[in-house]
Amino acid sequence: MEKSMAINLLLFLCLIPFSFFVCNGVVIVPSYAAAAHRTLEHRGGALYETRYFMQTLDHFNYKPDGYMQFRQKYLVNDSFWEGGGAPIFVYAGNEGSIELFADNTGFMFDVAPSFKALLVFIEHRYYGESLPFGDVGNSSTLGYLSTTQALADFATLIIDLKKNLSSEHSPVVAFGGSYGGMLAAWFRLKYPHVVIGSVASSAPILQFDDLVSPYIFIDIVTNDFKSESESCFKTIKNSWNEMDDTLRQPGGPQKLAKAFKLCPGAIPESVPGWISSAFIYGAMTDYPTASNFLTPLPAFPVKQMCKAIDNPTAGNDTLSRLYAAMNIYYNYTGTESCFDLDSGSRIGFDSWDFQSCTEMILIEGGSRNESMFPAETYDYQEQLSYCKEAYKISPRPHWITTEFGGHDIKRVLKRFGSNIIFFNGLRDPWSGGGVLKSINPSLTAIVAPQGAHHVDLRFATEQDPVWLRKVRRKEIQIISKWLKQYYEDSKI
């Protein structure tokens, strides 16, 4: 089986019927979040306006080349903004085109009317259209791609935007999911004079060094499927050997291609890795409502994949059972007549691949004997060899914890950090590297046992379960406290 487990799969990535907004000591009870959608529809349905900012290439040296500028894309929605000191909510863009995250961060649109907030979504450098050298480039031009440069981009753009809007005193709250959630948390820690607080959803800021086990990611994926069905878990666990045996037999690759209805040109040897990706991404996006984030999916996709695998009409044919499950993940719309083994992800893998070879050395990829995947020992040397070959560089595995911390996080941040919400859903494989316990009264951990990858940031629906509504209610209450304190302090 190909080593698909070693790939960094950091991806990302809804309101409540009522909540509270505090402004100048007055408590306002806003209407249901659907009002935001109605207003946007009345204005033509546009969620945002596209703008560009001339960004500095290198914020951290004074060599002439570093003064070069590039167009950084950002999206704005001012439908509900009052201006003149009203809040600005900023999404810290992550590894992909910013539209992907704006379209899947409905929470910000849902709460904007209540807070009378301006919404800004900033694209991360080297993703989407924000390419300093016109394309992703090579290791020389990619050298300007880092978390610290990205955070400096966000700060520079926000300060300039507030000045141009004559709203220098507007409080800024940062939002982010997954890698964007990590950036949102680090943004608050590094630039407290720019952002008064951050909502860091599904942000695995502890997935570095030896802070967590390299096996915890796959452990959580395994538990997700095992909790749905023991027989589903066993079928998946036993399937890898069967697929490997099939591929080794004469005519085996052709048998696998037929079983999974591969498109002409698709490589049958890639099927096991393709299946692994579906199970992993399915666990990450195991939302309680239908979604269209990475790919169109039904509500509770893990449950649905296990139902397909356990379907008695499939008999004892393991490949048929797996094929049925893959149709849930890769062909829920029923429009695919064959599979080309493309994961369909809209993430910017080229740039992320480079980041995975520099500082974003996320500790994951190992699987235990008890796992639903083949046992595999975590091997950093394998990643090191790949990075040297691909980019002629060696990773800096300890840089993130050097730059942002992580070790003894409770002791370090107890008196230093403030105003960060860490949300984690325990069905999300990345929750193993998240902050699961509150550090102090304003560094708040919200944990949802039934939650998946940054589910709290998704658009509200009538079908949202009670627990999800409560999570969002709590987040709104905390943000309201931050803003109330800011406005009170501004009077001093």
TrEMBL record:
<dbReference type="GO" id="GO:0006508">
    <property type="term" value="P:proteolysis"/>
</dbReference>
<keyword id="KW-0378">Hydrolase</keyword>
<keyword id="KW-0645">Protease</keyword>
<feature type="signal peptide">
    <location>
        <begin position="1"/>
        <end position="25"/>
    </location>
</feature>
<dbReference type="GO" id="GO:0008239">
    <property type="term" value="F:dipeptidyl-peptidase activity"/>
</dbReference>
<dbReference type="InterPro" id="IPR008758">
    <property type="entry name" value="Peptidase_S28"/>
</dbReference>
<dbReference type="Pfam" id="PF05577">
    <property type="entry name" value="Peptidase_S28"/>
</dbReference>
<protein>
    <recommendedName>
        <fullName>Lysosomal Pro-X carboxypeptidase</fullName>
    </recommendedName>
</protein>
<keyword id="KW-0325">Glycoprotein</keyword>
<dbReference type="GO" id="GO:0070008">
    <property type="term" value="F:serine-type exopeptidase activity"/>
</dbReference>
<keyword id="KW-0732">Signal</keyword>
